[in-house]
Amino acid sequence: MKIASFSTKSYDRASFDRILPEPGHSMSYFDAKLDIRTLSLAEGHQAICSFVNDHIDAAMTKKMAKMGIRLIALRCAGYNQIDLKAAAEQGIKIVRVPAYSPEAVAEHAFALILTLARKTHKAYNRVRDNNFSIEGLTGVNIHGKTVGVIGTGAIGRAFCRIAMGFGCKVLAYDVVENEEMKQLGVQYLGIKEVLASSHIISLHCPLTPDTHHLINAESIALMQDGAALINTSRGALVETKAVIKALKTKKIGFLGIDVYEQEENIFFKNLSEEIMQDEQIARLMTFPNVLVTGHQAFLTKEALAQISSTTLANVTAFEKGEKLVNEVVAGK
Ligand code: NAD
User: Fold this and answer.
1) Which residues form the D-isomer specific 2-hydroxyacid dehydrogenase catalytic domain (predicted)?
2) Residue 99 pLDDT > 90, yes or no?
3) Where do the domains of the chain lie?
């Protein structure tokens, strides 16, 4: 099939190019983010391959159908950016990569925790300036802390295993409890209890209408003073305004985020020569106890290989009329 890939980075291209010849598909790579204007680049293709910030609304699905696009192959797990109902109405199928090294994201969440807990981001800059003073670098142990995990899907479970390995007490909230985690010693509680009892809270649930701004002024008030909040899931799980306020009052002691509510206009771009227009991210950068990474938690060699192979397998299954095991269906 002819696939038009949007928001393509060099690492995507390298990873797809490595395996493309085998299934016999061809891929046109476009740097451009997918939107109603750039969609015309996909003329002559039968499938679109898109990423987390490529929003697809009803108007776009209509245009896609007219252009002969029959498949949207997401090279990510989340699908909150797609109007699934509109795509279904146009007869366009959607497939995704449900799990691509959940460990990659879980390990990144832990990297954020360890960096913030031991201030290695500050130490790195200091020693490069020949400043070997350790004044102000006092950290906290992770061992013995209570870690609250919201969402124990593939990534949340990998995160729980790491936390158990560190000797943490692990509490969890999920709409569906997981037996394997219970056997491991993870204790499921209501969300309020998890928020109230944890030193570190890590978010691993999807963004849905139910989870939008899950972390807001009200839920922050339940947390322990100085709690650490880690978000590697989706930016809008957290109301940034409320978190900034809580950082100022020290209610939140550490914030580690790989995703950001307004990331669409910022992440995946080099804006180093520009004036930052987003007031909230600019404010977040001023806190010494905040660490922001630009949606890179998934970015490991292992995960990229899994993403490209599953994406192309999804396309092949569609082309052959086989069962789409990774199909995303509206209302499910
Ligand atoms: P998953 O589908 O395996 O697990 C999601 C879990 O969340 C499930 O157990 C589900 O029951 C639970 N859940 C659903 N609604 C909930 C709610 N209201 N409260 C609590 N739990 C709820 O997904 P996953 O592979 O573990 O991925 C989790 C999220 O991580 C994805 O939705 C995506 O947004 C994000 N993600 C981020 C990156 C990154 O690079 N930063 C990469 C991959 C995925």
Assistant:
1) 11-328
2) no
3) 2-100+300-320, 102-292
Q: Which atom in ligand 1 lies closest to the alpha carbon of residue 157?
A: 26
Topology match between the domains 2-100+300-320 and 102-292: yes
Q: Of 301, 325, 304, 303, nearest to 313 (Cα)? A: 325
Task: Give me the mean pLDDT over the 60-74 stretch.
Answer: 97
List the alpha helices (DSSP H) in the chain.
Answer: 10-19, 58-67, 84-89, 102-118, 120-128, 154-165, 179-184, 191-197, 217-222, 240-248, 279-284, 301-319
Catalytic residues: 234, 263, 295
Measured distance CA(58)–CA(50) in Å, rounded: 16
Q: How far is the CA of 259 from the centre of ligand 1 (A)?
A: 13
* Residue whose CA is at the smallest distance from ligand 1 atom 14: 205
CB-based contact 223:195 (threshold 8 Å)? yes
Nearest Cα to Cα of residue 143 among 122, 171, 114, 172 = 114
> Could you say which architecture CATH assigns to the domain 102-292?
3-Layer(aba) Sandwich (3.40)
User: Does ligand 1 come within 6 angstroms of the Cβ of 211?
Assistant: yes
Where does the pLDDT of residue 78 fall: very low under 50, low under 70, confident under 90, or very high at 90 and above?
Answer: confident
Measured on CA atoms in the order 139, 143, 146, 148, is the torsion positive or negative?
Answer: positive
Question: Is 175's C-beta closer than 6 angstroms to any atom of ligand 1?
Answer: yes
Fold (topology level) of 2-100+300-320: Rossmann fold (3.40.50)
* Cβ partners under 8 Å of residue 170, min gap 6: 146, 147, 149, 160, 163, 164, 185, 186, 187
